[in-house]
Amino acid sequence: MPLDPMPDWVLIRRREIGARIRTARLRAQLTQMQLAERIGRDHRTVHRWEYAYRCPDLEDLLLLADALSVRPEDFFHDDGAE
């Protein structure tokens, strides 16, 4: 059963993951719509991930990493290149 309310650290990590998705998308010179088409999701879903309204599941993270030519772990760890 999910915690309600969600701990602050979870929300902070969700925002960080969303920001890393956005950064990778912009580096790949893709719009939210183009990225969504590549991974078979709606562009509103990509928007929700980037702005931390929702968090992608593992399957979506794998699809995102492949579409953006990054490693899945890049969404979780700051490599200092941002």
Automatic annotation (TrEMBL):
Boundaries of each HTH cro/C1-type domain copy? 21-75
Classification via InterPro entries: Cro/C1-type_HTH (IPR001387), Lambda_DNA-bd_dom_sf (IPR010982)
Tell me which species this is from.
Answer: Streptomyces musisoli
The organism's superkingdom is given as Bacteria
Protein's name in the database: Helix-turn-helix transcriptional regulator
Q: What's the source species' lineage?
A: Bacteria, Bacillati, Actinomycetota, Actinomycetes, Kitasatosporales
Q: Which Pfam families match?
A: HTH_3
